[in-house]
């Protein structure tokens, strides 16, 4: 089992302190809208890899590339504005701590800020994930299942809200069906003191991790027979 600390949207005082070291997790997952130095602190304090997607209140991280000479954007040297040591999995599939993770960041477009997309734009962005997954399956003959789909916003109609800024993305239905993850982990929807209901979509557990959630996940579990990710502890609010 892989021990995972999932965080998003709301900083937790007890995590941004030395007592976080008692958690001893294998992996940190960030679902967006957190200070980047918060993610950096967790990565350093827990000595664990961090994989994240940007939220709608985060800086624009599109177009950055890391090479031997450092970071570039549009072919020019630059400084990476994201969290040092963390991996941005937006529109990518990566492996970390024995888990296979795909990511899709951002929210529905509502005021023209960074990391906001229309339904059509996000559908187009999501095709990068489905094409990459199919390429690994068909060309590289990589049959490993996906463990986690990490998003900032939830799927449309599955844990989202009705106000214009918190409507979910319709493309996540198709992405979840085709990638068949064990778990879809998202933020963006603040529960305001309540414990959000854990939902399912095409066999995947859909979990809102605003604040933080501690999980234990069996790598490579199949949807028809896997033991659902176990929620060890969760907390919402500061």
TrEMBL record:
Residues annotated as domain Calcineurin-like phosphoesterase: 20-191
InterPro entries documented for this protein: Calcineurin-like_PHP (IPR004843), Metallo-depent_PP-like (IPR029052), UPF0046_metallophosphoest (IPR051693)
Gene3D superfamilies: 3.60.21.10
Domain of life: Bacteria
The name this protein goes by in its record: Metallophosphoesterase
Species of the source: Rhodococcoides yunnanense
């Amino acid at each position: 089992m892989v021990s995972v600390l999932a965080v998003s949207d709301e900083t937790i005082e007890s995590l941004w302190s030395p007592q976080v070291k008692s958690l001893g997790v294998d992996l940190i997952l960030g679902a967006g809208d957190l200070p980047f130095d918060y993610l950096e602190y967790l990565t350093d304090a827990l000595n664990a890899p961090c994989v994240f997607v940007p939220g709608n209140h985060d800086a624009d991280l599109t177009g950055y590339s890391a090479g031997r000479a450092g970071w570039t954007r549009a072919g020019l040297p630059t400084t990476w504005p994201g969290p040092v040591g963390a991996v941005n999995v937006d529109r990518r599939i990566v492996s970390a701590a024995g888990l296979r993770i795909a990511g899709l960041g951002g929210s529905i477009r509502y005021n023209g800020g960074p990391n906001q997309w229309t339904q059509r734009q996000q559908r187009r962005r999501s095709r990068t994930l489905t094409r990459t997954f199919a390429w690994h399956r068909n060309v590289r003959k990589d049959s490993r299942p996906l463990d986690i789909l990490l998003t900032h916003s939830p799927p449309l109609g599955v844990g989202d809200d009705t106000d214009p800024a918190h409507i979910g993305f319709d493309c996540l239905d198709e992405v979840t069906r085709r990638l068949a993850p064990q778990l879809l982990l998202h933020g963006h929807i603040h529960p305001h003191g309540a414990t959000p209901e854990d939902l399912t979509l095409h066999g995947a557990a859909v979990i809102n991790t605003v604040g933080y959630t501690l999980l234990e996940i069996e790598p490579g579990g199949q949807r028809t027979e896997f033991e659902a990710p176990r929620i060890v502890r969760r907390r919402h609010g500061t």
